[in-house]
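sorry to bug you again but im stuck and you know this stuff better than me. below you get a single protein, a line of residues and a line of whole numbers that encode the local backbone shape. mainly i need to know what kind of three dimensional shape the backbone takes. anything you notice is useful, everything is just below:

***
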Amino acid sequence: MKCQNCGVDVPEDKIYCERCGTAIQMVPDYNPEEDISIGKEEQKKTQTTEETEDNTKRSKWCYAIAGFCVLLLGGFIIQGVYRSLHTQETITEPIEPVLLAKPQFSIEPGEYDYSPMLSISHPEQSQGTIYYTTDGTTPNENSYMFHSPIEIREGRTILRAIFVRFDGIQSEEADGTYDVIFDYPEEPEFDIPGGNYSKGLYVTITAEEDCKIYYTTNGEEPDYQSHLYRGRIYIPVGLTVLQAVAIDEEGGVSAITEAIYNVSENFTIDNESMEHVE
């Protein structure tokens, strides 16, 4: 310590100055620079604490803002994924085509004992084409085009038809099954059976009522284009193969009746007999 009166250094165990005898006050030396230094350090600590608190607050706000942005971005991502999936589902859903009304058949499906003539129509027929099949296959634009009535022949016919408008719009399919079972007439009968004869002869042919008889004498099978029977048939000398069929009004054709005549003697017919020969 220093003496406050004369400034001489006084040992710490002394309570008075040996030089001037002044009592020493037990007060530590005051160093203003140390106070200033301590003040600065405390100020720095205060500033550091304040800066730390400010930084902490800023960090909290940054984290809060970042979290909000993450949540917002997540919402946009989820919404985008949902829209994408919904769009894909919408695209992949099959679109049912709009079909026009189905064609109409002039004859109802069913069983018939004759060959009906069937027509196909459509309300917009002038604006497109009707296509059909008769074997049960699916009709398309490569199938038969309907222009005129269709003859439903004997047996089973599975008719399917569609209408295709010129703009490509197609109708629903119409279909029907037709079973044609002919009630065949009985085969014709000859009044004279085939065999060997010594002179010419006349043969009468009969058949069921409302049937026409067609015949041949050259061995060919008769049909509706053969000779139409109108009266007795003369069998001349030689070998004659007589065949005949009966065809009813519905087109039913009977079995063929056949007889072979072998006439060995020349026979001259009279004028009366010639009237009955076709």
Remarks:
- Residues 270-278 have pLDDT under 50 and may be disordered.
- Helices lie at 32-92, 271-274.
- The CA atoms of residues 82 and 88 lie 10 Å apart.
- The longest strand covers residues 155-165.
